[in-house]
Amino acid sequence: MGHSRRPEIPLRQHPDPGGNSAGIELLEPGKRRTQLEQWLRDELIPSFNEGNILPVTKAIGDRWAILSARADERGTPLAIIDGLLAATALIHNLTLVTRDKDFSGVGVPIFNPWRS
Question: Which CATH architecture fits 58-111?
Answer without folding.
Answer: 3-Layer(aba) Sandwich (3.40)
